[in-house]
Specification:
The protein is mainly alpha-helical. It has one domain. 81% of the residues lie in helices and 0% in strands. The chain is elongated, with a radius of gyration of 21 Å.
């Protein structure tokens, strides 16, 4: 069973039906801060889960595996981004630009710089190096969607317990656990195991989705550049 203090930040946002990272849907998200927070969450959530029944335990194990795989890909992504710091920074700053604005930004960045300082060739190198990570991330996105459906099914099978928890019965004990370890132990005893397991799975689902989304932001910008290159090439041919 996971400590409730570890789940605190994630569970609150999960129950609200949103990402655990404010502004995750925005191109202006603070990627460095978000990246550090996601890495920390990967470590803190670990691999423990609350045993309930064969069916729920099976889903919990799959979600643990999904979390581990996504966190591994995210770690590879962070390593790549650190090696290509200029590109990662450029993509983050310009993620909300249109195709033409993005190309203008690249040209402006490269103007007057020596070849080894220009961003365009660095972006090309980053595209090649990141392809495997993006492919793994795409596969994980599909798996996350499948597990989201599984969570919905589990929720439907335990609607009464989860409804009581959402109404505040278990959450009162949950917040008490954050302020007191002793109270936390008592709360864990009072919480229905399936509710605890469900929160753990949702926390892992949100973590995986946030990490996946952050990587996808860069992938979308890279694809934007590739599409723009194709348009330019077609115009030259015509």
């Amino acid at each position: 069973m996971l400590k409730k203090t570890i789940l605190a930040g994630l569970v609150v946002s999960v129950m609200a039906g949103c990402s655990s990272i404010p502004g995750m849907e925005s191109a202006t998200v603070d990627r460095e801060a978000t990246s550090k927070e996601l890495t920390q969450n990967c470590k803190e959530l670990g691999t423990e889960f609350t045993p309930v029944s064969f069916a729920v335990d099976k889903a919990s194990k799959v979600m643990v595996s999904l979390q581990e795989r996504q966190c591994s890909v995210f770690n590879d992504y962070r390593t790549l981004a650190s090696k290509h710091g200029d590109v990662a920074g450029f993509l983050a700053v310009n993620a909300d630009k249109s195709d033409e604005e993005l190309r203008v930004a690249m040209n402006e960045f490269d103007e007057g710089k020596s070849d080894n300082k220009k961003i365009t060739p660095q972006v090309e190198a980053y595209k090649k190096a990141s392809d495997e990570i993006f492919q793994k991330n795409l596969k994980l996105a599909a798996d996350i969607a499948v597990q989201a459906a599984e969570l919905t099914y589990i929720a439907s099978q335990h609607a009464s317990a989860l409804a009581h928890d959402s109404a505040g019965g278990a959450m009162d004990s949950f917040f008490a656990a954050v302020s007191s370890e002793k109270e936390g132990e008592a709360s864990e005893e009072e919480t229905v195991p399936v509710v605890e397991a469900y929160h753990e799975m949702e926390a892992r689902s949100i973590l995986a989705l946030d990490a996946n989304s952050l990587i996808s932001m860069d992938k979308n910008t890279i694809e934007q550049l590739e599409n723009l290159d194709k348009v330019v090439a077609d115009k030259v041919k015509s």
